[in-house]
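@here heads up, posting the sequence + SMILES for the 2-acetamido-2-deoxy-beta-D-glucopyranose run so it's all in one place. Ping me if the SMILES looks off, I pulled it from an old spreadsheet.
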Amino acid sequence: MTVLNAKLKSANNICTYVLLLSKCVSTECSTVHTASSSCPATKPSMLNVHLVPHTHDDVGWLKTVDQYYHGDRNNIQHAGVQYILDSVIDQLQKDPARRFIYVETAFFYRWWRQQSQNTRRIVTQLVNEGRLEFINGGWCMSDEATTHYSAVIDQMTLGLRFLNDTFGECGRPRVAWHIDPFGHAREHASIFAQMGYDGFFFGRLDYQDKARRMKTKEMEMLWRASESLTPPLADLFTGVLPNGYNPPEGFCWDQSCNDAPIRDDPDLEDYNVDEIVQRFLNAAFYKTNHIIMTMGSDFQYENANLWYKNMDKLIKYVNALQAKGSKVNVLYSTPSCYLQELNLANLTWPLKTDDFFPYADDAHDFWTGYFTSRPALKLYERLSNSRLQTCNQLEVLGGPKSTSGPFGEGDSDTMKRAMGVAQHHDAVSGTEKQHVAYDYARRLATGWAHCEVLVRNSLAVLSGSESPRVFCENLNISVCPLTESSQKVLYADFSKLIHTIKVHSLLNYNLSFFFNSLSVLYECVQSSGQDFSINNKSVLMYAFKFLKVTFDDTTGLLSSLTNLETNQTIRLTQNFYWYNASSGNNKESRQPSGAYIFRPNSSDPFVINKTAEIQIVTVSSTVQEVTQWFSPWVSQVVRLYEGHRELELEWTVGPVPIADGLGKEVITRLDTDIESSDYFYTDSNGREVLERRKDYRPTWDLKQTEPIAGNYYPINSRAYIKDDKHQLTVVTDRSQGVSSIYNGSLEIMLHRRLLYDDFRGVGEPLSEPGEFFDGLVARGRLLLTLTPPNMAADVHRPLAQGMVLQPLLSFQDGTPLANTKLEVCRGSFSGLQDALPPAVHLLTLSQWDKDSVLIRLEHQYQAKESKTHSQPITVNLQKLFSTLEVLGASEMSLGANQWKEDMNRLQWNTAKASKPLPLSAKDPSPWENRQPTDHCTSQSECSIGVSKPGTDS
Ligand SMILES: *[C@@H]1O[C@H](CO)[C@@H](O)[C@H](O)[C@H]1NC(C)=O
Ligand SMILES: *[C@@H]1O[C@H](CO)[C@@H](O)[C@H](O)[C@H]1NC(C)=O
Ligand SMILES: *[C@@H]1O[C@H](CO)[C@@H](O)[C@H](O)[C@H]1NC(C)=O
Ligand SMILES: *[C@@H]1O[C@H](CO)[C@@H](O)[C@H](O)[C@H]1NC(C)=O
Ligand SMILES: *[C@@H]1O[C@H](CO)[C@@H](O)[C@H](O)[C@H]1NC(C)=O
Ligand SMILES: [Zn+2]
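bot reply: prediction finished. Complex structure tokens:
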């Protein structure tokens, strides 16, 4: 038997494998298919206009995903996806030249399941001939500002899996297509590149950036999307579409549009074909003699005949003019056919290394409010991701009994689909109508209900106990029925575990925690006998081994933070403020703040209270906490835990009062003496970190028109400020908006409640009702660490990972055990043979099919950010799991829809010489000399090696 090793050659790499268990299924790699042989011919000496018929089908927005699919509630918005697909398939059959692209697999999957064998045969043929092409192909078109990479990879995998299972290689999307998301994250581009996409097109970018790019012909570029991965691994050809995602003006031939049809009778007075040709010739801001025209828009093609009939004529008459010397050639095409032409042109493309945030479509219209909109939904989505990972892992570890066992039938698919839908750019982004937000939350709850059965079954298998188990919906004890009876609270800190947690849980019950590190721990928890001791003395200093915090005893605010290991102290004042949201009544612009847009009517926020009333609550020797009361609707608990390096700020904001007629955007601001000047740092989808600078964009000379909103950026997991000596890092529990307006300061937007719609289509002011009060109460946590900059990643990487993957708690009814030693009823199980190296994170462990599992091993450090951890790492795949016998492994693309050895992306030339960043260390192992596995291998930064047992360390 040979040894299978996975090697993560560089920092920040994700390696995806299918592991074969038990019976060896065939692992023949599928043959490599040649790219789009079905693309229409173009004319090299002419301007080729690629018409791309498409529909943009939001997976929920003004209506729920079900209402959109069925065409229900057309009084809200006329849209019915099932009719769109019916109609398009019908029209495609009428002429082999016609093309259509389809994007959202959440909808296609539903439609496909309702089709007859005959229709399926026809559709399969259309796909095989390239007439119907899948583009993007994830479950949805994800939001880029408020999503976490883990959930994005999962939702892409779900959609791509369906397409591969259904259509094989011909169903594999080659182009990523984010025509509507409101700004673009670099990590998304990196993910797309690693998934094997050849290119990426989008519609929205800052209006100043767009104007410049049109002038300099830089609408198309090469995006180098990672500072860690060696080019071209994370390089993605990226194009900005000329008309957003709409048709050019005057060319909208959907039933929902009012544009005149092609009037093709030259004897008629309004014959307009010549004018159309001229319009195409005017679009001269692209480098090649090819341009792409998106022919379609939101939920269009319900009556596809209108579109195709007019496009047929457009093509016929415009091309007929070629006989009279016209140099315009119009054709039906697809994004991948257009991309192929650009590639053949073999030009040199400009290089892009930053991202496309924030997005503004006018001087006072910054789409930076949605970074924070609907904070509770954003948290729930994040918690659901954690639960889904747990569910996936327990499905593997518990075996077949987990889906069908003592507690009934459970599954992870419902949760996967609910999470897939929740990644949509009007879901977790918070830009949907209120009734649709409820629908997303309900889907996640239903998904969890299915997972919960699976988890019960699996834990019964793993623990050998079938007695009933209760899950707390959250750690707030008031909603956990089994624990309601007791008044005492125990703080337990199981810091020995790989992921340490802090639990507020109750005595006398058998607790078990399932960690995403695959450990289950059973513990009979007993009361420590300590009650809350409340004293109001003004002892305002708190110290454990790692941190010391002081409060100002006149204001009750935080005043300093000390790292006791490094002996560093910073001044740290924290308070809560609100920006007065613009109502649109303003001489510069009528733009109000809304679900998308952040527009304060003054750069100076109002302080909620200059002082806080504080209450000291010393709980135990393991936790110290102070509660600060700022107003009836803002409070905070400040906590320090024994053995932890972070300060926890648990904020509660709401219901935000609006009786004064003022919309409010609530922030907390940390003011320090760190000399950060104009710089601050934000993560991209929870992964790599980007540098930000106030009133500055790396790619153009910014004319700043909104001093606050124009400096906001999204964070998904962390932000920091630093100088030579100090770095203050804030780890968050959900996606939020963040900025640094003053030297040494960092502000995070926590909650917003607004009175006006912001004219971007949602048609409602963002004013979330609460369950118990008038207005939503949001609560969340910020974790603060103070370190020297070169040690920061070692602390914030694991901290952020622990925040993303929360342990799942469950309670079993237990007999009170008066004086029993804890050891007596302690048990544990670990799915891993050994703890993974600190740099490696098991991003995915999920049942793939009957005899195989999908795993993703992630190197979670960026190149150069950690002296100890930013190093190549080798993991033995066979010794990874304690209960799984691994017989073989095959490497796949990140999206798991292509074998790695079949990946063959288009190559592009770029202006700047690609200088790969030096990795922190040379590869220590003599790996290169070994023979690769008989399965798939590649020249990528992941590899699988096979060696004889005993020869491997
Ligand atoms: C593409 O252009 C490069 C120079 O930029 C040249 O070396 C190469 O031969 C060209 N390739 C093709 C296929 O024309
Ligand atoms: C649980 O939530 C309720 C309502 O927000 C609150 O009153 C109560 O104090 C919370 N309990 C704990 C232990 O946090
Ligand atoms: C930290 O600083 C204090 C006073 O400045 C000093 O007494 C102490 O020895 C220092 N500790 C460390 C670990 O450097
Ligand atoms: C501000 O806090 C003080 C206590 O520090 C409290 O008495 C006062 O009512 C608070 N003001 C508001 C507006 O809540
Ligand atoms: C894609 O699906 C086909 C069957 O349609 C299967 O043979 C192939 O292994 C799948 N590819 C991957 C990478 O899973
Ligand atoms: Zn959309």
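MO: Residues 523 and 826 are 5 Å apart (CA to CA).
MO: One more: The mean pLDDT is 85.
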